Amino acid sequence: MTQPPAIEFDTVAYGIGELSAEFTFERAPGTVTAILGPSGAGKSTLLNLAAGFLEPRTGRILQGGRPVNGLPPSARGVSMVFQDNNLFAHLDIRTNIGLGLDPALRLDAGTWKKVETALERVGLAGFGRRQPASLSGGERQRVALARAFVRRRPLLLLDEPFDGLGPGLAADMLGLMLEIRAEVGATVLMVTHDPDEARAAADQILLVSKGRIAADAPAEGFFDRHDLPELEAYLGRNAGP
Amino acid sequence: MRRFHIIPVALLACLPLAAGPAASADKTLTVYTYESFVSEWGPGPKIEATFEAQCGCDLKWVGVSDGVALLNRLKLESGRSEAGVVLGLDTNLVSEAKATGLFEPHGLPTDAVSVPGGYSDEVFIPYDYGHFAVIYDTETIANPPTSLKDLVEGDPNQKIVIQDPRTSTPGLGLLLWVKSVYGDDAASAWESLSKRVLTVTPGWSEAYGLFTSGEAPMVLSYTTSPAYHMVAEDTKRYQAAEFSEGHYLQIEVAGLLANAPDKELARQFLAFMMTPGFQDEIPTNNWMMPAAAVSIDLPEAFSTLVSPEKTFLYSSDDVAANRAAWIEEWLGAMSR
Amino acid sequence: MLTRSEHRASTAGGVAALAVIGLALAVPVMVLLSQGTGTGVSASQGAYIARITWFTLLQAGLSTLLSVGFAVPLARALARRPSFRGRRWLISLFAVPLGLPPLVAALGLLEVWGRNGVANRGLALFGVETPFSIYGLSGILIAHVFFNLPLAARLILPGLERLPPEYWKTAANLGMGGLSLFRLVEWPAMRRSAGAAGGLVFMLCATSFTLVLVLGGGPAATTLEVAIYQSLRFDFDPGRAVLLSAIQIGLTLAVMLGLRLISLPTEAGDTKGGATSRPDVARGWRSLPDVALIGAAGVFVAAPLVAVVVSGLAADLARLLTDALFWRAAATSLAIGLAAACVAVSLAGLMVRARFSVGERPGSPGLGLLSGLAAAAGSLTLLVPPVVLGAGWFLMLGGGAGQLLAPLSVIVLINALMALPFVMRVIEPAHQGAMERNGRLALSLGITGINRIRQIDVPALLAPLATGFVFAVALSLGDLGAIALFGSDRIVTLPWLLYQKLGSYRTADAAGLALLLGAATMALMIVADRLGNRSGAAPLAGRQLR
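^ Those are the sequences you sent over. The predicted structure of the assembly is below.
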C-alpha cells in the first residue's frame, strides 16, 4: 500500500483574468521542494493556497489524502516561515515560541521546558526573555524555525525565509532547516529565488511562470537543462552561447 | 412674560440690528426689554407702530433673554447704556435695580395703574401682571399636581422645565414661590423637585418651546398661558394646575434710566404705557393681565382661567436682601 | 541657512510674536486675579463649586471611558474588515465631527436623541415607558461620544493597520482565537494610541463648553467652563468667575502634566484601507459582530449629520438667505475668521522662523528658552480655555458694552490663539523642509532679507500657509466660546445667532442656520485637508473641540 501524497493540488484555480493561477502537483512525504519563478509568477499564491490564507476558486487541495478546502489555516497541519516579521515584535522570544504550542498561551511548566529545548536546538539557549528587536535577523529566523520545530506540523512552508541574510548565514540556516525537517519528518515547500539554495536543499523543483507550473522535475541536474524556455528566461541565459 | 408669539416660527424681529433700517425721525428712543416682548408675534411691533405715530420718533427695541438678564446687562454696562427706558423687570427686582443708581424717578401720575395689591412706586411703573403657574399637557398628565407639595414630591419621571432664577423672572418667581411656601425647608424642597426637572433654561421662551414640542409634560409659566392656546389654537389641551397653597404674583414694571439720551421722550413713552394704546396689546399679545384700562373686551377664554384665591409676593427689599443667598441655596440644592 | 541679519530679524520676530501671545494670555489672567481678590467664598458657594468641579471631572472621565471604550473594539473591527464596500467612505465620515461646530452637532443630536427623536420613538416601539433624556449627564455623554468616538477610532486604527501582514498570517497559522489575538497582539498595538486618545479626549471633554451649555440640565449638570460663563453673564459675579477660572486652569494643567500631553498626540493620519488581507478573520455569519459594531457606529455618527441636513432643508432657507441679520452675522463671522486666521498665521510664521533660526545657532540658553517658549505657546491655549481668556478680557473691557472694536479684537485674538497650535503644526515641518531644500541656494545667490521671504520662502510655503489659514478661518467660524461672552445685538456671529435661535426656540430657523454654518465649516475643513494633504500636513488630525 502506497502512502498518500503529503500535499496534493488537484487543478486548483485561484483568481480570474490576467492574474489567474492554476496549479496541479503532488509531493510525497518527506520531500523538499523548491518553488522558483520570476516575481509575480504566483509562487506566493501557491504557498498561501497551501497554507489556507487563500481559498481556491475551484479544485481540491489534499493533505495526506484528506481534503482541506475550507479548513482554517490552523487546522491544516501547516507551519509557515516568512521572510520577515515572523515574530510579534512586542512579545519576548519564549512567548513567540510558546504561541506555537498553545495559541492562547496557557502553558504549564512542562511546555515551557519544550520551549527552552527548542531554543537550545536552534542554538539560542538562554534567549527566551529577550525581545525580538535585540536579536539579529538570522537569530530571529532561528526563532521562527524553533517555533516550527515545537509545532511539528507535517507540512513546512517557507516563503523566501533566508533572503537578505547574506550567503554564509543563509547556508547555515538552510542546514538547520533541513535538520529540523528531518527530525520532525515534515514535507517542505520552499519559495526561493536563489538557484543555489534550491540546488543545495531541494530534492525537487517547481518552476512557476504566469500562474502555471512550467516544470515539475527532480532538482538533480535541473539547472543544466536547456529545454525549458521559462527556465532560460528565468535564469537569463536564453541569449547565451 | 407670556410670549407665545415665538412658538409659531417667528422671523428674527427680536434681535434688533444696530445697523437697522435708517430712521427717518430725528428723535430715537431705545427700550431694553426681554426678547419675546419684541418678537414678530409679541406686542412690541404693534406698540412701536402706535407710539411712533404719536411721537414722531423712532422707537428701537433691544431684547435680551429674560427679565433678570436685563438687570445683569444694566449692571454690566454701568451707565453706558444707550437706552432710555427699561421694560420687563418685575417688582421682585425693584429695590436691587434702584440700588444700582441707574434709574431716576419718572415724575408721572400713575393713577391709571391698577394691579393686585395696589403697587405704586416713584421709579417704576407696572405695565402688566400675572400669576405663576405650572402648565401641563392634559394628553400626558391625567392627574396634575394640586399643590406645590404635590409638584415637589411627585413622580420623578414626569418632568418639568423651569427657568434659571439668575436670568429669568419666572425662574426667580418660582424660587420665591417655593420660599414663600417652604421657608427654611426650601433647600430640601428644591432637592426633591430637582429630580423632576428635565432642564433649566435661561429664559421663558426656550422653556415653553420645549414644553409645546413635547420634550416635557410640564412647564413653569402663568395662569394666563392656557388662554393663548384656547384663543390662538382653539385647544384646551394645555391647562394651568391650581395649587392649594396659592400662587406667586408677578407685576412687571418699566423705569426711566438716569442716563437716558432724551428723557422727555422716555417719559412720553412711560406715560403712553399707561394708556389703552399700549395696554390693549397686552392680554392677547403678551398674554398677561393689563395693568391699566383697556379699550377692548378680553376674550372669553380669560374667564375660564385659574384665578388664585391666595397670592404670594415678597417685598422687593426682602428680595434684594436675600436674592444672592437664596440663589446660592438654589444652586446648592439643584446641583446635589 | 540664514544670514546674520536674518537671524536677528527672526529672533526679533519670535520675541514679538511671543510678546503678543504672552500679553493676550497674561492680561486676562492678571485682570482675573486683581478682580478676584477680596471676594470670600461662603460655605454653600464652596459646596456648589466643589460639586461642579466634581461633575466636570465625572463627565470628562465617563466621556473618555465611553469614547475610548467603544473606539477600541470599533478600530479592531475596522482593522479586521479591511476591504468592505464603503469602508473608505465610513472612515471619512468619522472625520466629519472633528470639523463640525459643536452647536450644529448639538442640534442634530437633539433631533435624533430628543424626546420626540428617532431614538426615543424607537424605544417606545419596544415598550420602554420612560424616555431617554438628552438633557443633563446622559445628553452631555452622548454628545461627547459623538465627537470623540470617531476621533479616538481614527487615532487608534493606524496602530493596527501598521502591523505587518505576516502577523495576521502567523496568527491564522497558529490558530490564535479572537480573544488571545486581542490580548497578545491587537491590544498591545492599540494601547499607546488608545492611551494618547484617552488623554486628548479627557482634555477636550474637561474643557467642553458649547455642548454642556446647550445640553446641560441646569446646576446639576454644569461644568467649570459653563459656570465661568454663567457667573459673568448670569450673576455678574467676577469673584466667582476668577475662582472657577483658577480651578479650571489648575485642572487642565494637572491633566496635561499627568498625561504628558504638552506635545499633543499622535497623528490620526490616513489609513490605507484594504491593503492588508486578514486570513485570521472568520467570514460569513461569524463576521456579524464586526458588521453590527461598524454599522452601529456608522449610524450613530451619521444620524445627527443627516438630521441636520434634513431639518435644515425643511427650514425656510430662502427666507433665511434674504434676512439682513443673517448676512450681517455671516459678514461678521467671516471678518472675524479672516482676521483671526491672519493673526494666527502671522504669529505661527514668526515663531516657526524664530525656532528655525535658533535651531541653527545652538548653545545660547536665552535663544533656547525662546525656542522652547515658542513651542509651548501652542499648547498654552489648551491650558487657558477660551472662556477663561474671554472672561478676563470681558472684565477688563467692562463687559464690552457700548464698544465694538475692542470686543471684536478680543474675539479675533482668542480665535487666533485657539487655531495657533494647529497652524504651527502645519507650517513647521513644511518650513523645515523648504529651508533644507532652498536655504543654501538662496544664500549662494545672495537673495536675502525681505526679498528672500517674498520670492523664495513664501512661495515655497504657500500650500501649508494656505492650509493653516483656511483651517483657522473654519475653526473661528464655528466657535461659540469667545463670542458667548461678548455677543450682543451689536456683535452677532453665525454661531451666536444660532445659539440665540436655539434659546428662543426658533427651531426651524435654527435648523436652517445650522445647515448653512455646518456646510460652510465642513467645506473649509475639506479645503484645508486637501491643501494639507498636498503639503503633507493634516490639520484635522488633532483639532480640539469647543
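Chain B touches chain C through 61 residues (CB under 8 Å). The CA atoms of residues 4 and 228 of chain B lie 7 Å apart.

Shout if you want it in another format.
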